[in-house]
Every structure is written in C-alpha cells, then in structure tokens.
Amino acid sequence: MNGSNLLVDTNILIYFLQNDLEIIEMIRDKNLTVSFVSELELLSLSDLTEEDESVIKGLLNNCTIWDLNDEIKQKTIQFRKNSKLRLPDAIIAATASYLQMPLLTADKGFRSIDVIDVIIYESQP
Questions:
Q1: Is the pLDDT of residue 2 over 70?
Q2: DSSP assignments along the chain, one per residue
Q3: How far, CA to CA in Å, does 74 sit from each of 19, 27, 59, 113, 123?
Q4: How far is the C-alpha of 86 from the C-alpha of 82, rounded, in Å?
Q5: How many other β-carbons are positioned within 10 Å of the β-carbon of residue 73?
Q6: Is the C-alpha dihedral spanning 6, 45, 111, 67 positive or negative?
Q7: What is the per-residue pLDDT across 30-50, written as a single tens digit (0 to 9) for each?
C-alpha cells in the first residue's frame, strides 16, 4: 500500500479496536482520515461502555474527520444512482473520491466503484 494518506471505513476501525494485527500493521504510520459517517457509526454502536466510548474517541482524535460538503453531496448522489451502495457507504466513497485518497475497507460492495482506489481487506479466519 503506497502513500501515507488513507480514508478508512468503519469496519477497518472496528478491526483495529479488536486488535487485528494485520490491520494494525496496514495502517501503521499512515495519516488516517474518516468520514463523519464512521464517527457516527462507531459512537452509536449498541452496548458501548464509557470505557469503549473513551477508546473510540481516542482513536478518532488521531484521525482527520471529514464532514459533508456540497461536492461530496453531489458525488454521493452519483454513486447512489450508479451503484447499489447504501447511503452511508456512498458518502464514504464520495469522500474518498473528493479527497482523492485510497479507501481501505472490508466491504466487498465497494468493488462496484471503479472511480476510486479501493483496497479490500479480507480478514483471516
């Protein structure tokens, strides 16, 4: 994986929080960016303890969180029209496109998007 900037999907952050060693190695020394969608998804997980929330907030503090803007909105609309991505995933894909960053995800549904650089992580059983 070349470059030091990565947009990471929510599932990658979850694997990281679960101490997935391969993910830890993949994102080591990278400048991580996340969509606001991932921030919302992580902080709204059911059954979060105060400690879990604190750990998640600590992780997010080490990432750049990118909010919605008009160009991302327009790209999201196009991704939704041209693919079967769910709205949160379309926003994440649009953010990667807008920022011109590779997207690291474990969601194979992103393979249908050929206008962004998608790195699919396949976890080892």
A1: no
A2: --SSEEEE-HHHHHHHHTT-HHHHHHHTT-EEEEEHHHHHHHHT-TT--HHHHHHHHHHHHTSEEE---HHHHHHHHHHHHHS---HHHHHHHHHHHHHT--EEES-GGGGG--SS-EEE-----
A3: 36, 29, 29, 15, 32
A4: 12
A5: 13
A6: negative
A7: 999 999 999 999 999 999 999
Structural domains present in the chain: 5-120 (3.40.50.1010)
Q: In whole angstroms, what is the distance from residue 73 CA to residue 64 CA? A: 19
Query: Considering only CA atoms, which of 65, 60, 87 is closest in space to residue 76?
Result: 87
Tokens 């379309």 appear where? 90
Does this model's pTM top 0.85? My answer is: yes
pLDDT in tens, 59-82: 999 999 999 999 999 999 999 999
- Determine the Cα–Cα distance for residues 1 and 3; give it in Å rounded to an integer: 7
